[in-house]
Design brief:
globular; alpha/beta; binds ligand ANZ; binds zinc ion; four-stranded parallel β-sheet; seven-stranded mixed β-sheet
Amino acid sequence: MSRYNPSEIEPKWQELWREEKLFATPDKSDKAKYYCLVMFPYPSGDLHIGHWYNFAPADVYTRYRRMCGYNVLHPMGFDAFGLPAENAAIKREVHPAEWTKSNISRMTWQLESMGASYDWDRMIDTSDPEYYKWTQWLFLQFFKAGLAYRAKALVNWCSNDQTVLANEQVEDGKCWRCSAVVVQKELEQWFFAITKYARELLTSVDSLDWPQKTKLMQKNWIGQSEGVEIEFRITRPSFGGKNEELRIAVFTTRPDTIFGVTFLVLAPEHPLVSKVTVKELSGKVKRYIENSRKKTELERVSQDKQKTGIFTGSYCINPLTNKSIPIYIADYALMGYGTGAVMGVPAHDQRDYVFAKKYRLDIVKVIESIKGESVKGEGESKNKLIERANEEEGILVNSGQWTGMHSYDAVKKISNYIEKKHLGKKTINYHLRDWLISRQRYWGTPIPMVYCQTCANAGRSWFNSKEARSHHREISNLSKGMAGWFPVLEKDLPVILPENVDFQPKGKSPLASNEDWVNVKCPKCGGEARRETETMDTFVDSSWYFLRYPSQKRTADSGQRTAELPWDVELTKQWLPVDMYIGGAEHTVLHLLYSRFFVKALRGLGYLTFDEPFTALRHQGLILGPDGQKMSKSRGNVISPDQLVSAYGADCVRTYLCFMGPYDQGGPWNPRGIEGVYRFLNRVWNLEDRVKEQESLAEQRMLHKTIKRVTDDLAVFKFNTAVAALMELVNFFYLQDRVSRQSLVVLLTLLAPFAPHMAEELWMSLETADYRLQQKKTVDAGQKIISIHLQPWPEHDPKLLQEEQVIVVVQINGKLKDRLQVPAGTDQPQIEKLVRTLPKIVPILGTMKPRKTIFVKDKLINLVV
Ligand code: ANZ
Ligand code: ZN
């Protein structure tokens, strides 16, 4: 047998598999479908070992599923638009398109070198006009349904990347990409109305086979909060004149504290601010509002920061106490949550407490703590004795008819009372905000909208059109703020991203610099109009790519450009939802939430019939450098897959990645660990010299035990223990210094998902010497081509597992007395029972209880008497 030389066999098999299209997935098949998807990468230039850790075990799992008899779809593509590519391109002074293209071809080559079983006919590049045409089309459907809208809002601005960010892209007040501090800006932007699906996104996550932690993170991000909206009547005299009674609604989760409300707070952006501010104070109020705009949301809500505010000069009435309380403006109240107004309960809310202290407002205790010790100044009821708010539930005091009741009951009773008396209503709020999708950057999908000033002046928008009226009954609501805006006609899609643009980020949309591109005719009046110059968040591209893969081939095959939908209806029904989604945990909120929203929104519009995009989800852990630190260029601890492949071969890297630890935990890269796996593969390689015809019962037992272990482990992503089982089997073969042909074939079949090249090479050499000749013969005979990867997954024989018998030595005081044959794994109490019935033991032992029992499972029992 020749030496194991992966660099010789691996490229050879990759080429043959490619030529035979061995892993192209047929759309028509008698087999059950299985859509197994990995998160597609950014074309950042190089596949690092973290990518491999996502893709290689995922490919192992895919191959296993395929051999189990499923028709498996395992596609690959590139999340090609977006900041990473654009920033890299700027740094290197090349065009992002060029940079992206060359990276895609380099990464495709790298993926090939991994021996992954992708169906390359379905490859997706999101920056391809044939793809982003449909991203634009989807935007238009959302727009027409009122799910995409433009609005002025306080938004997150990253001054380093010179663009706005979605809430999900701000981590601890910083930009998720570059870590620059994010500031608030008031801008007109495009949003997707993800909040319309908040309730559904929250509840239906329970049904998914996802990691618990990820489900919880989705829920927490959506943030459901049950409470009441209570209305406070404003009593500034001038309002009486117009017969209009102004009310401010507040949202509270603690209606049990309502008797302790001593002031009311409006967010600076609240629409009633101008109405409640008295003339004498309007200058001061204006300055306050301007100042608060400079703060980040984090600064505004942070618990420990000083609370600032300003009195409006107006008062309102607490509907339960009928007492008059002052109205303040304070920026710890956020406009984006609840009603944008808060009832101030300083005795029981710490922020209100800090605020009341600063502005010398009353602090009235209405909840008595049940744990006595935390009630400072009890009996004296002097405000200054309260040192901080008591936010816990307890017994109500000073609360009229509810005095003496527990908070839990009072929350319900007071809410009911408020509803009954029409003072307000119960509501559920979600912390989730609408998804801001427009970006002031170049490398993205152009938003396919046109703005016409003439039409805007005349108050016209698409929502006045006949098409719009056929879509909606309540146009007026949707058309708010949309005057002048028109969708690009669907037949004119895609709106091509122009190449000739100065794409350096300047805080404005780079596309605006290309006048030729910007100026268009208004689809309504035919006058001078302008294209929208902002592009879509990259996350929009990745929110639907999994819907495209099944149909991607159709378009590629037929060059079909006239399709009416982004996907083939039949293929979509056949393949979706994704059965298994595998990827990193860093996108737990962002990408997964957006994709779920897309599916629900498209289902709502009648384009899809299922409800959730990813039925099952698994995360891989993080691979650390050999020093246990996060891999980074600056630390010099980055492990390059390319070098490993040339040193050990792809099969070895794949198998080691599977073997290094539990898949969802990752861990440090161990340079010695990979050597061990390399030795293991060499041992497999050299087994061919030991092939003998017959097999022993022991060999069969060991083999079937291994089949069961590998099968069970792969099904639940325990790649490491599956490899360990294979290693034990190989050790067994070496110990008995022989292996039967059949056993070797089974071993190779089990090994095929992990080390596909080696398995194919050895299997072929067992089957036939000449691959090409054999293929020709089988194909001529009308049969499928042969490959170990088309073989069925081995099944274990349960009989061979159960009936394994062992001989247990029976000793009394260390002296051999008898032997006992029992099924392997029999436990101590059972063996003791059996021993006591043995004819040789009964006379010795009688009814004596042994002082001590030494037990070695499947081997020995020694009774000390
Ligand atoms: C009175 C009160 C008394 C409150 C008390 C809490 C404790 P979650 O659980 O996150 O929903 N709130 C409501 N709207 C707000 C806004 N726009 N900006 C800032 N704060 C706002 O929080 C609900 C609580 O957050 C509400 O209940 C309100 O304060 C505050 F002892 O009302 B509470
Ligand atoms: Zn017009």
